Amino acid sequence: MIPISIDIDRYKYDIHSLVRAFYPREEVCVRTEEEWAEQETAPFLKICLGTDAMPELSIRLRGSRGEMLETGTWSPEGVSASEHSTNGSDDSVHTQKNVLKRLLYEMLVRETGHALPWGSLTGIRPTRIPMQMLEDGRTEEEIHTYLRELFYVSEEKRSLSIEIAHRERQVLETLGDFRNGYSLYIGIPFCPTTCLYCSFPSYAIGAWKNRVEDYLHCLDEELKLVATLGGGRSLQTIYVGGGTPTTLTAEQLSRLLTMVRERLDTGACRELTVEAGRPDSLDRDKLVAMKRAGVTRISVNPQTMNEETLQRIGRRHTVRQTIDAYRLAREEGFDNINMDLILGLPGEGEAEVRHTMEEVAALEPDDLTVHALAVKRGSRLYEQMISGKDTGELPADPPDPDRLMTIAAEGAREMGLSPYYLYRQKNMTGNLENTGYAAQGREGLYNILIMEELQDIIAIGAGTVSKRVFGDGRIERCDSVKEVAQYMDRLPEMMERKRRLWEAEKNGI
Ligand code: SF4
Q1: Which residue minimizes the CA distance to atom 5 of ligand 1?
Q2: β-pairing verdict for 2-6 and 45-48
Q3: Whose CA is nearest to atom 7 of ligand 1?
Q4: Which of 188, 278, 299 to mutate to test the pocket of ligand 1 (most atoms within 8 A of CB)?
């Protein structure tokens, strides 16, 4: 465990994320110095933030035996003009945070001997900076300089984020007045089995089969509320995710999508995605039902095309099933199929990723999302790694995650797909990112809207998060409980949370 002391709470989260990025397999704990003193623990890092009277901030880095390794300080006189104009927000808190992170980043690079691809940027949406700067009329050159000098972002990641920002802007233009529209997310938290790395709301369908009808009834109640909350505005995209929505029967899927059309005005809806996710949950009847119901985009997710890995990670389907499900979807007329891949899966290196890319290329998907494995709390993989139960079958990290990402990126481009959205999560392999690649005109609109936080997302179902984007750019969220039984028992409360969030805007609060 890496103990860190900080004298005020404000940057706890950022410090934790940055240190964890350098030490992905360690627990990082951020507390006050007094709390560590009570436990007689000498912090590895001690961070003191300045006050109005004494504005310097200082960082001390200690070795494992408590010896001082390095100290760094910063005072406001040393800050350059560019640091005060960050991302449209030049308040001192924002500036102090960036400086603190940069100073800490420099020290950790010296301490560990390696740099991070995204430098000191820890947020999950790195494309928002180039997007904002392009909106402000800044040149690519200026964006490169800003990301390099303030955050130490590598050239490769700077170029990637700028390319994506350009493409997102082009796609958003086609959506018209998207800020006054909204999107709907429907969560179906059931899966055939639970994958080793899963941290999503996911319950084995076998055990919940008899309660799916009750769950659909709850969704219908929520849809009635959505009709009120979204009233008068255009519903632009619908995303049915989970879990694995295609664990529902063909009849249930059909009924769910009919409910959506009956309760809401879908006349302006540009995209209806259903995550078919696990190939073992798909059959022709379900594909026909989705096609008839107007689904425009589906995901058939292999994650890997290596049989042994699929078994190791608990997917319980075969490569053959992925290929068959994909071909069936094409036969049924789906012309926008996404495939999700994960890099850094246990036991996978360059050879396995190359093999996966070759197999996927043969299928010619319209859209490919390449994830770097994120080992999250709550997943069985996290428990195995942290508790030291790693038997050797689960190597902690691939030797060169950057290389795997490059192989996947080159493979996607060779398939004629180019990057259109990107996001990061905590604890990602190699501190990398997830990137969506798509053919021109096949971009997932919902993916862009949710990542750039440009419009309301009303989310229904267990474990979902609704997001309200206010006129002044402020964003507020409300969630639903993850546990399915609780969600159903407490449905009125879950709906009331959403009602309050949307009423707040109406009342100008
Ligand atoms: S298919 Fe997705 S949601 Fe379901 S268990 Fe696997 S990772 Fe979790």
Answers
A1: 194
A2: parallel
A3: 198
A4: 278
Q: Which of 253, 190, 181 is CA-nearest to residue 461?
A: 190
Distance 245 CA to ligand 1 centre (A): 11
CATH of 2-114, one of 3.40.630, 3.90.1530, 1.25.40, 3.40.50: 3.40.50
Most confidently modeled of 17-21, 101-105, 300-304? 300-304
Measured from the CA of 301, which atom of ligand 1 is nearest? 1
Ligand 1 atom closest to Cα of residue 314:
6
* Atom 2, ligand 1: residue with shortest CA distance: 243
What sign does the CA torsion over 145, 147, 153, 156 have? negative
- Check: CB of residue 339 under 8 Å from CB of residue 363: yes
pLDDT digits (tens, 9 = 90+) for 145-195: 999 999 999 999 999 999 999 999 999 999 999 989 999 999 999 999 888
Taking only the tens place, the pLDDT of each residue in 88-99 is 444 455 677 788
Read off the pTM: 0.89
Ligand 1 pocket member 58 (CB < 6 A):
no
Q: With the C-alpha atoms ordered 376, 381, 383, 388, is the resulting torsion angle positive or negative? A: negative
Q: Is the CB of 202 under 6 A from ligand 1?
A: yes
Q: What is the CATH number of domain 174-460?
A: 3.80.30.20
Helices (H) and strands (E) in the chain, counts: 18, 18
* pLDDT tens per residue across span 302-342: 999 999 999 988 888 999 999 999 999 999 999 999 999 99
If you measure from the C-alpha of residue 196 to the centroid of ligand 1, how many angstroms do you get, rounded to a whole number? Answer: 9
281 within ligand 1 shell (Cβ under 6 A): no
Residues written for the chain: 509
Q: Which atom of ligand 1 is nearest to the CA of 277?
A: 1
Q: Where in the chain is the domain with CATH 3.40.50?
A: 2-114
- At 479 the three-state DSSP class reads strand
Write down the pLDDT at residue 81: 35
Q: Are 352 and 409 in contact (CB under 8 A)?
A: no
Q: Looking at ligand 1, which atom is closest to the CA of residue 194?
A: 5
CA of 194 to the centre of ligand 1 (A): 6
Determine whether 288 is exposed, middle or buried from the number of CB atoms within 10 Å of its CB (0-12, 13-18, 19+): middle
Q: Where do you find CATH 3.80.30.20 in the chain?
A: 174-460
The answer, yes or no, to whether the previous bond of 243 is cis (omega within 30 of 0) is yes
Nearest-CA residue for atom 8 of ligand 1: 198
Q: Out of 180-184, 285-289, 375-379, which region has the weakest mean confidence (pLDDT)?
A: 375-379
Distance CA 500, CA 493 (A): 10
